[in-house]
Amino acid sequence: MARRGHRPSQAPAGRPRFWGRHAVTAALANPERVVRKVWGTHEALAGMALPSTIQVTFAEVADLARLIPSDAPHQGMVAEVDPLEEIWLGDLMAHGEGDRRPLVVLDQVTDPHNVGAILRSAAAFGALGIVTQDRHAPPESGTVARAASGALEIVPWVRVVNLARSLDEIGEAGFWRIGLTGQAPRTLADTLGDQKTAIVLGAEGEGMRQNTEAHCDELAKLPISDAVESLNVSNAAAIALYAIVARG
What CA–CA distance (Å, rounded) separates 59 from 6? Predict the structure, then answer.
């Protein structure tokens, strides 16, 4: 490990570093994930059967802190990984053909904490996957992985170039596309039917773009109190996914 006072080199471009027990162990358990390096304290790595193909370095807590953003809760372990291979929208929908698992579509949601939290909710409620626009979504990162608490490794994440065109493709695959907006006349419960559902959520603060709304089958709102103007997008996603799954 680097000497005290020396900052280790940054991760290679496009190769994120994950931190925290959930994120690192989930990456190690994912057969689709290539883990290049693991740093950790003796205590944190004790009892872990790490493959011989992974470069393992035992380190002090202070040294680990230099590998990642300041104040990141690493819990004694850090991993350097390759991003997962790209997933195509058509393949995802073909994989989910025949079941009613919901799909989550995010319109320019850029906060990595929110995307990570939505991945976690998607895993909790058995969503088919999430779809984001490639240019207006965060890349895989330690922040996303930490907020997802392992869900980044198990929930398919599709990145698309044109969200409107992808919504057309989702509709053609039999999904009823419901866009969440506080200005909608009906609640989500009123718009849910028996068909497969794709829930569409807009960016933090600004909501869905007009063109995105135009490619939804219906707009709906969550019945929240007048005491608050809106919900955080990750909270809204969790509530919407629960409502879809709970309809029976």
Answer: 13
How far is residue 200's CA from residue 180's CA, in Å, rounded to a whole number? 6
Instruction: Identify whether the C-beta of residue 239 lies closer than 8 Å to the C-beta of residue 192.
Output: no
**Do 105 and 176 meet the contact criterion of CB atoms below 8 Å apart?**
no
Phi and psi torsions of 178, nearest 5°: -110, 120
Among 3.90.1150.10, 3.40.1280.10, 3.40.50.1970, 3.40.640.10, name the CATH number for the domain at 89-246. 3.40.1280.10
Confidence label for 227 from pLDDT (cuts 50, 70 and 90):
confident
What is the layout of strands, in order, in the sheet containing 55-58?
17-19, 77-81, 35-40, 55-58
Torsions phi, psi for 246 (to 5 deg): -75, -10
How far separated are the first and last CA of the chain, in Å rounded?
A: 53
| Whether 198 contacts 163, CB under 8 Å | no
pLDDT digit string, tens, across residues 138-150:
999 999 999 999 9
- For the chain, domain boundaries: 17-81, 89-246
